[in-house]
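Hey, resending since the last one bounced:
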Amino acid sequence: MSPKDTSRTSGGGRSGFTSLTPGRVGMALLAAVTLIFIFENTGDVKIRILIPEVTMPLYLALLATAILGAACGFYVAARRRK
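The structure tokens again:
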């Protein structure tokens, strides 16, 4: 009898989304706290980027900053893998 191929069965392997590591839990908690912080700050603020000055809700500015920071982090992580 040949050994059983278990690579296609579900439940036995460790895929990327089924195993909760402390790092993944920490990042999920950090993301949740960041989103709570962003959406609790809803007042309007004046933001000046170089020359134009715009008035916008603070949560949009924080959300845009968080997205840009995440994009930079993903870019750096992808460059390190190569």
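The longest strand covers residues 44-48.

Sorry for the duplicate.
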